[in-house]
Amino acid sequence: MTQVLEQPVKPAPLVTGAERTARRRAVLEWIAVHSLGVAAALFFTLPFVFVFLTSLMSDSQALSRDLVPHTWEWGNYRKVFDTPGFLTWWKNTLLYAGLGTVLTVVSSIPVAYALAKFRFRGRNLSLMLVISMMMLPPQVVVIPMYLFWAKQLDLSGTLWPLIVPMAFGDAFSIFLLRQFLMTIPNEYLDAAKVDGCGDLRTLLRVVLPMAKPGIAAVALFQFFYAWNDYFGPQIYASENPGAWTLSYGLESFKGAHHTDWNLTMAATVLVMAPVILVFFFAQKAFVEGVTLTGVKG
Amino acid sequence: MSAVTLASKRRRSALRTLAFMSPWLIGFAVFFAYPLISTLYFSFMHYDGFRPPTWSGGKNWAYVFEHYPLFWPALRNTLWLVVIMVSLRVVFGLGVGLLITKIKTGTGVFRTLFYLPYLAPPVAATMAFAFLLNPGTGPVNSLLEKAGLPAPGWFNDPAWSKPALTLLALWGVGDLMVIFMAALLDVPTEQYEAAELDGTSAWQRFRYVTLPNISPIVMFAVVTGVIQTMQYYTQPLVAGKVASGVIQGAGTQFEPGYPDKSTLTLPQLVYNLGFQRFDYGSACVVALVLFALSMAFTTLLMRRRGGLIQAGD
User: Is residue B190 less than 8 Å (CB to CB) from chain A?
Assistant: First the structure.
């Protein structure tokens, strides 16, 4: 407003001069911001680049300080797949991440729905307990849990002690879904009720279709959690290499191949790649999940 | 409406709630409440997993605090990580978040590139950094030496192992970047326009407009950062193992904390005491210390004004 009023008062040449400096400043700022952006992009991507380049080096070159391979040894990836156990770890990881994700989503949805939309005594307390469970490291209860699974049910050396609990809701998934379900207006639920839908029908027919982005985010997070989990397999599966997952087995590469960084880095790429591919296909749901748990609410 | 139907309606609604909540109620009882009480019980017992547990009073507690050589180094490391790693991560995350809001060309590409490292599985990311920073053939030290700069021992030097872990944590700053980016875009533009008319500098606008608006998010980032530090396990353990060259396999023992206890954190002590020394009682003592510290910060997070919990309908 003030600018508009002042403009006619100022002499014409001065205005264009001011405009020119403003434009020059904008260009300079653009250059500064984008150079900084490129520098940051280098910091975030160069580690991937060096890891990938090293994964393609020959054995002898991997022992040197070279940054770029002389010959591109794509066969390294073949060697990784041929390593005894590697395919088993893949299979185990898919079982843990896949089955675990399905169980978590199915068991967490009704709980999140009740916490978001039902009115009952103890609701806030339940929510607070969910958040507390979410914030606790797994090491807090691992001793009795291990004794329970290993000594009483004789299930150590398998991944079942990690998969079975996921059928009973996961605190983080419940919390994230609850945050998402809070954003669905109650009018939809009331309308469904007027139409004669019971609670279960309302959840399945009305709420779930609207909650797809939230469910996608939860499924992604849970899949990544299982994929990345190191402590769980270390506790329950370490004694039996046939039950190792990729995250747990990867480390043994360095041991088995001593200083062969090329094969270790090829294996590292193979553990990173699926997660990054999944991210590209589901970027939106993922970012939405991050902001939902953090900012909103 | 008669009292009878009202009562039956209430009962039906309670049953409905119970049915929907049941997966979590069972999970809470079996996988949380019972083991937590059990942890407290075992912290007063001598138990090696083979002979039946026997009452030992406060012996485990005294052992952990007075004689267990790894406890205080782990606590000191945790303090270091809370003060230095968490604050650097918040500052860096805010910086990258600010940068991404200023980038006008190729925003999507930059944002994805900045975010990707956060997704790298922790073991894989740690292996990658153990390679990048290895003093023998690592590209980072090669480049540093070419530039005539000192080349530290990183994960092999007790003085540099935590800075190396900090570097790894800064690389994976994507989660904070996204949260700060969302918060920065929520700051009302009128406030910036008003400040600009008052002839303020860019720093003044950041200090007096941006910061007050995003301070709840900064607080959130700090507290969750502290909670995450209590859980910090995979990266320091794997970094220590890989740098020390200990070969993993069934039955191998790795004393955590390499080099010289500098990468020890509290969760590693639970593993060391319980699964390497078979002293389940003392492991439970550390587990309870971890519980108390985590709960203290979680309470802080929940008490926050306009906190984590959105008011019910």
Answer: no
Closest to B103 (Cα-Cα) out of B92, B111, B93: B111
A137/B131 Cβ within 8 A:
no
The architecture that CATH gives domain B69-307 is Orthogonal Bundle (1.10)
Nearest chain B residue to A291 by CA distance is B179
> At which residue do the structure tokens 């709960």 appear?
B295
CB A207 within 8 A of CB A189: yes
Both tokens assigned to B225: 């950062």
ipTM: 0.90
Instruction: Give residue-wise pLDDT tens across range B4-39.
Output: 677 888 888 889 999 999 999 999 999 999 999 999
Tokens (6 digits) for B92 = 């860096």
Alpha helices, H only, B172-312: 174-186, 189-197, 202-205, 211-230, 234-244, 266-271, 280-303
Which of B32, B148, B40, B171 lies closest to B93 in space, CA to CA? B171
Element (H, E) at B54: strand B54-55
List A residues 26-65 in contact with B (Cβ-Cβ < 8 A): 29-30, 33-34, 36-37, 40-41, 43-45, 47-48, 50-51, 54, 62-65
H or E element in which residue B126 lies: helix B122-132
Q: Cα–Cα distance between A117 and A126 in angstroms, integer? A: 13
* Residues 6 or more apart whose Cβ sits within 8 Å of residue A153: A161
Q: Any idea what DSSP says for residue B278?
A: -
In A74-103, the residues whose Cβ lies within 8 Å of chain B are none
Mean pLDDT of A37-62: 94
pTM attached to this predicted model: 0.90
Query: Is the separation of the CB atoms in A55 and A269 below 8 Å?
Result: yes
Mean pLDDT (chain A) is 87
Rounded to the nearest angstrom, the minimum Cα separation between B38 and chain A is 6
> Could you report the per-residue pLDDT of B275-308, keeping only the tens digit for each?
999 999 999 999 999 999 999 988 888 776 544 4
Kindly determine whether residue B290 and residue A137, on different chains, have CB atoms separated by under 8 Å. Answer: yes
What are the tens digits of pLDDT across the range A125-177? 999 999 889 888 999 999 999 999 998 999 999 999 999 999 999 999 999 99
